[in-house]
Amino acid sequence: MVYLKSITFPNADTEYDFFMSIQRTCYDSYYPFKILSKNDLYRLDFEAVTILYGGNGSGKSTALNVIAEKAGISRDAIYNKSNFFPDYVKLCEMNVEEDIPDSSRIITSDDVFDYMLNIRNLNDGIDLRREALFDEYLDAKYSKFQMKSMADYDQLKKVNNSRRKTQSRFVRGELMDNVREYSNGESAFIYFTEKIGENGLYLLDEPENSLSPKRQMELMSFLEESARFFGCQFIISTHSPFLLAMRGARIYNLDKNPDEIERWTELENVRAYYDFFKKHEREFLP
C-alpha cells in the first residue's frame, strides 16, 4: 500500500532565498536547513517499503523527522525541532496517493528506549512490593493476633490467609502477577509489534537498535507481511543488512551525492559483511 507518494525538499537556491528574506540572526543553528541540500537530496519517491541508507550526517533521520512533521504523523518521544523547523517544513511539498491514516506514526530509538525503561521501572516497583509482602506474610502467620473490634477485621483476614496459604500463594493473591521482564531485544521487538497496526504509514528510525540478528530477521518478516497483507507503508532508515534485504524495498543510498537508488547487495555496509564472512568461509565448514 502507498499512502505517501513523494516529498520534495527545498534546494540550495530556495534555502538561500529564505535566509535573505528573514531578519533573524541570533540563532546558532538553522537546522534542518543545509542538511539535505548539502548532499543534494531534493526529492524522494516512495514504494510500499522505502529504505534510507547512509552514514552519520547523511540526513536520513532528518528526512524522517521532516516527513513526519509535514504529514502530521504521531510520535511519542520529544525531538529537537529547532526554531527553523516549521519554516523548513513549509517549504517542503508532499504528494499523497491516499489519505494518510490517523494510526500512522514515527518510531525512533528514543521511543523504544523509553518503553524499555518504563517496563524496567514497573518491574522494580513490583519487586519491592513483593519483598514487603514476604515480610507481611511472616508477621501475620506467626503473630498472636486477637480480634478486639471490627477495626481489626482486615488484619484478621490477612492472618487467616497467611495461615491457610503458602508464602508464594499469599503473595500472588495480594499482588498482581509480575510483569515479565524481557530482555532489551525482546522488549524492543514487542514495542514494534504493539505500535504497528493495520493500514498505516510508519516511519522507523534505525529499528535494528537493541535487536539481535535473529530478532532483526523476525522484524523483517513482520514488516514484510504488514506491507503485503495489512495495508501498511514503511519508510525506514537503517544499516541492518537483514532489513535492507526486504523484498521489493526501494533503497536510497544517501552516502552518494546526489543520492542513488541501489540494490541492497551494492551497499558498502552490506559488502563489508559479505567480504568478512567470505574471508572466514572455511571456518564455518564442518
What does this structure look like?
There is one protein chain. By secondary structure, the chain is α/β, with parallel strands linked by helices. Helix content is 44%, strand content 13%. The chain contains ten helices and nine strands. It has helices spanning 12-21, 60-71, 85-90, 109-141, 153-164, 167-174, 184-195, 213-229, 241-244, 268-279, and strands spanning 4-8, 43-45, 49-53, 93-96, 105-107, 201-205, 233-237, 250-253, 260-261. A six-stranded mixed sheet has the order 5-6-7-3-8-9, sandwiched between helices. A three-stranded antiparallel sheet has the order 2-1-4, with helices on one face. Helix 4 crosses helix 5 (153-164) and helix 4 crosses helix 7 (184-195). The protein starts with a strand and ends in a 7-residue tail after the last helix. The mean pLDDT is 81.
